[in-house]
Design a protein that fits this description.
The chain is α/β, with parallel strands linked by helices. The protein is about 50% helix and about 15% strand.
């Protein structure tokens, strides 16, 4: 009986969390960001303010999910993040991982799907934080490179979408191209979610039998010298992309082996 009550509560709390997320995004759009836009500053300064607002909002949201009993979490290596000109590459096991990452990185840009620019609950944060659309791949890469070279921090999921449980990784080359063109500090973040939930194949109400645990492990920076030394840029991008894919495949097997 206690397990059933706990399950029903987590189902209700999950729905409530998504409702709060949607309403919060809408209120940021119609109330908070219009007020911030009145403050003086360049477009970059305004975007930086927007990113900080999203960061604190997501920090509160993750705290709510934790207090509701929906999730637990752990972080290893947070001190390696929040550096200028840093490109954070991460795997993408669950819908909530981007929210979790931004909640721990005070000021970061990211790539968003073009269709989300028309979502009334997401449009405000996206526009005011200066996030980059994936609508035009060449323009996207150029904007990301410029942002990193100017000292900004970025989060990119090389998969381009959420992982499919049990399926091998298939990384797109955009993250590798951006990293090499910008000659950025590239830091890997491995995310694990157990039990698996909020994957691409699941609806929000298909919750696991117990609260899920999200773990974030920040690895050491990649050394780009062997890739940037290659004169053929396309070949360098392909090799580095394969290096990223192999790294995260090994990490996933490691954490599965240890049952984390």
């Amino acid at each position: 009986m206690a397990k059933k009550i706990n399950y029903l509560w987590r189902l209700l709390a999950t729905g409530l969390s998504f409702f709060i997320f949607g309403v919060g995004g809408f209120l940021l759009w119609v109330l908070v960001f219009p007020t911030l836009s009145l403050l003086p500053g360049t477009s970059r300064q305004k975007a930086n303010r927007g990113q900080k607002v999203v960061h604190y909002s997501f920090y509160v949201f993750i705290g709510l999910m934790h207090r509701f009993g929906v999730m637990t979490y752990e972080i290893d290596g947070l001190d390696k993040l929040n550096r200028p000109g840093q490109l954070i590459v991460a795997n993408h096991p669950t819908l909530i991982d981007i929210v979790f990452l931004i909640s721990r990185i005070k000021q970061a840009n990211c790539i968003v799907k073009a269709r989300l620019w028309h979502n009334p609950f997401m449009r405000g944060p996206i526009l005011n934080a200066g996030y980059i659309s994936n609508g035009d791949p060449e323009q996207m890469i150029a904007e990301c490179v410029d942002y990193l070279k100017s000292g900004g921090c970025m989060i990119i999921f090389p998969e381009g979408t959420r992982s499919v449980p049990g399926k091998p990784y298939r990384f797109q080359r955009g993250a590798a191209a951006i990293a090499l063109q910008a000659n950025a500090t590239v830091t890997p973040v491995t995310l694990t979610c157990y039990p698996s939930t909020l994957t691409k194949a699941e609806q929000w109400y298909q919750i696991p039998q117990r609260r899920f645990h999200l773990a974030m492990h920040v690895g050491d920076d990649f050394v780009l010298d062997e890739f940037t030394a290659t004169s053929a840029k396309a070949l360098a991008v392909r090799h580095f992309n394969q290096h990223l894919q192999d790294y995260f495949t090994q990490q996933r097997e490691l954490y599965l082996h240890h049952g984390k």
